[in-house]
Specification:
The structure is a single chain. The longest helix has 13 residues. The chain is of the alpha+beta class. The chain has four helices and nine strands; from the N terminus they run ββαββββαβββαα. β1 and β2 form a beta hairpin. The protein has a domain of 115 residues: Nucleoside Triphosphate Pyrophosphohydrolase (Alpha-Beta Complex), CATH 3.90.79.10. Strands 3, 4, 5, 6, 7, 8 and 9 form a seven-stranded mixed beta sheet that branches. A two-stranded antiparallel ribbon has the order 1-2.
Length: 165
Amino acid sequence: MSEEIFDVVNERDEVIDRKPRREVHRLGLLHRATHVLVFNSRGEVFLQKRSMKKDRQPGVWDSSASGHVDSGEDYDTSAARELREEIGLSVTHPLERLFKIDACEATDGEFVWVYRCHHDGPFELNPDEIDRGDWFAPEKVTRWMTERPQDFASALLFIWRSLSL
């Protein structure tokens, strides 16, 4: 499988170049990503525990689905693709955009659009991406993040603080 190619962006999220994933990360270049939070009919959020095979932040809890925006791809398409690739969820309608985060240290230099959708599962977890996943009450997640922030991906910590549930 060939290495992913990302759009490199400037501080205004405008595309200025294209580079392989490894180069983007090695050089600390600004790029794009999406995060999707899936809520069920009971108001619980589905979180994934990142695979230990991941090159960035392995083994920590993260959004329901997240990933880089490929070169030439838009944020909305990326979010739907990540849902399909990571948890096997195909959506037929546009995802709800919640907010956008400017590239910062917490996001590893990524501009991030955060989305929400509703689904009760079950999901088909991609073992290359995810070790496991589970449903959590939002107040439990908030308490857990306060007590053990090291259990979570830095971007999810940032996103969770910005959420209005």
